[in-house]
Amino acid sequence: MPELGKYAVEVLSAYAASLALLAVLILLTLRRGRAARADLRRAEAEGNSDA
Amino acid sequence: MTALLIRDLRLAMRAGGGFGLALAFFLIVVVLIPFSVGPEASLLSVIAPGVLWLGALLSCLLSLDRLLAIDFEDGTLDVLATAPLPLEAALSIKALAHWLTTGLPLVLAAPVLGVLLNLPGQGYLWLVASLALGTPALSVIGTFGAALTVGIKRGGLLLSLLVLPLYIPTLIFGAEVARRGAQGTDATTPLLMLAGITLATIALLPFASASVLRRGLR
Amino acid sequence: MSIWTYANPVKFLALSTRVQPWLWAAASIAIGVGLVWGFFGTPDDFRQGSTVKIIYLHVPSALMAINAWFMMLVTSLIWLIRRHHVSALAAKAAAPVGVVMTLIALVTGAIWGQPMWGTWWAWDPRLTSFLILFLFYLGYIALWEAIEDPDTAADLTSILCLVGSVFAVLSRYAVQFWNQGLHQGTSVPVATGGRTVADVFWYPLLLSMIGFALLFVALVFYRTGTEIRIRRAAALRARAGRGL
């Protein structure tokens, strides 16, 4: 851990907030992507069973 | 074109057309300001130009969703889209009608409300000039926003979200003119910028609005 | 073979699946190394103290916030002119990433501003412009959400993006006129080719900027793929519903 001096709170909170925001973005992206994949598979299956 | 203008003006004047509503809203906003910041005359005279500009802008926003929605519901818009008159022209006329029924009354009412807010004497001319120059831009930009949201149910809130950021440059220069005028400093530069924005939006934005409306109606 | 090959959704998905692992890996490495190097391996600034370390987050995210909008502008134009669905969906996919980048830039800026300028927020032209950019992103996303027909939504949001770009630039100059700022000049002036950052800070910053850019590309690839799949599922269902 480097010596952050009197600004330790600021620096750490900036990193924490940014990484948290990025993590939320990536998680939401992945979740939506998985749901879309699953839904497409279902839609394709429905189409095949009808045919 | 004149027929369309007269028709729009008549519709707006009729009860429920929202003609007096914007004015009443402007009055209420201005009356509420001293309640929220205190009755000190010196403070009010400092913020008066900005408050009057913001009040006029919000009042303008209020009547935008009627601009095209009524015509959309009764099918007039489809007629206009297929009429020989270019849709760009029709939308410019509609913006003009909106300005005549909303913008112009606001411009005329602003000096009266300026008295309530203790606006310095030298500021009145600049306030009226800046509003007269700036409100046409608000109507034209608002027509673009109305065209974007016309097919959307309960699009009023979305309309505000879309239009307000587009109002920022107009507000900045308009309020700057009024503020400098009230302080007695030279307001030529922002006045020219404001005029530039208004002329550019009047010249260009109807094309965007018409293109949006054609795609939206399809 | 031209770039328009990838306007075909199937080809696009194939390409995107092929390059994505590399993109994600490269982005993680660049951001990871850049941030760790910046955080642990660089000295404090003699005036800013350790808060200088925030630059490794602030500058790259601000850069990508603007570039994301620029990318949306280009893809919107491509959609309006050549009507490639992938292009419109890529613009849709980029917008939320741009929002998050803008938010990171604003938040890190505020955290840095508190000890350095003595205030979280100042109505400085750069800060204000970013806030305005944030509002434009919100309006753009809200319009996408509000319109049901996907092609109409793509049309209208594209035009909004074009008009919004003009007004965003206009706001930028209006804001500059309205208030002279306290924000320092750009750290990486591309136009002049120079830079105002010392080498020790520059290399990790450069790495972090590359990392953020790669992350943006990876996210847009992934999200565009998601949008394509959603559209295809809807199309399949519509066809089944019509009894074909």
UniProtKB/TrEMBL annotation, chain A:
Pfam family for this entry, one: CcmD
Predominant location category: membrane
The organism's place on the tree of life at top rank: Bacteria
Transmembrane segments: 12-30
Any one of the GO BP annotations: cytochrome complex assembly
Topology relative to the membrane: Single-pass membrane protein
Subcellular locations according to the entry: Cell inner membrane
Entry-linked InterPro entries: Haem_export_protD_CcmD
Family to which the UniProt record says this protein belongs: Belongs to the CcmD/CycX/HelD family.
Primary role: Required for the export of heme to the periplasm for the biogenesis of c-type cytochromes.
Protein name (Swiss-Prot/TrEMBL): Heme exporter protein D
Originating species: Sulfitobacter aestuariivivens
Source species taxonomy: Bacteria, Pseudomonadati, Pseudomonadota, Alphaproteobacteria, Rhodobacterales
TrEMBL record, chain B:
UniProt GO MF annotations: heme transmembrane transporter activity
Membrane topology: Multi-pass membrane protein
Keywords: Cell inner membrane, Cell membrane, Cytochrome c-type biogenesis, Membrane, Transmembrane, Transmembrane helix, Transport
Subcellular localization, as worded in the UniProt entry: Cell inner membrane
Domain of life, source organism: Bacteria
Parts of the chain that traverse the membrane: 12-35, 41-64, 96-117, 123-150, 157-178, 190-213
Entry keyword Transport: yes
InterPro entries xref list: Cyt_c_biogenesis_CcmB, Cyt_c_CcmB_bac
Gene Ontology cellular-component terms listed: plasma membrane
Keyword Transit peptide (UniProt): no
Family of this protein: Belongs to the CcmB/CycW/HelB family.
NCBIfam families tied to this protein: ccmB
Protein name: Heme exporter protein B
Organism: Sulfitobacter aestuariivivens
Automatic annotation (TrEMBL), chain C:
Pfam families: Cytochrom_C_asm (PF01578)
PANTHER family hit by this protein: CYTOCHROME B_B6 PROTEIN-RELATED, HEME EXPORTER PROTEIN C
GO annotations of cellular component type: plasma membrane
Gene: ccmC
Family membership noted in the UniProt record: Belongs to the CcmC/CycZ/HelC family.
Name this polypeptide is given: Heme exporter protein C
Gene Ontology process terms (BP): cytochrome complex assembly
Topological relation to the membrane, as annotated: Multi-pass membrane protein
Function comment: Required for the export of heme to the periplasm for the biogenesis of c-type cytochromes.
Keyword Transcription among record annotations: no
Compartment(s) of residence: Cell inner membrane; Membrane
